[in-house]
Amino acid sequence: MGYASTRSLALIGLSAHVIDIQAHAVPGDAELYLVGLPETSVGPARARIWAAILNSGTSWPGGSR
What we know:
2 strands
């Protein structure tokens, strides 16, 4: 369906490091995979992404979560 790429910043202490973010959507049941995460503190990102999609007025692909 689609591919998107953007850049953001990751803070490590007081230093900001540029990171690349990529997303790829394919037909079928909606699934969310987070790869390349260096810390377990980023684990709740799935729930934050899901909430951001719903709060933006967009529905989760394929219905509910």
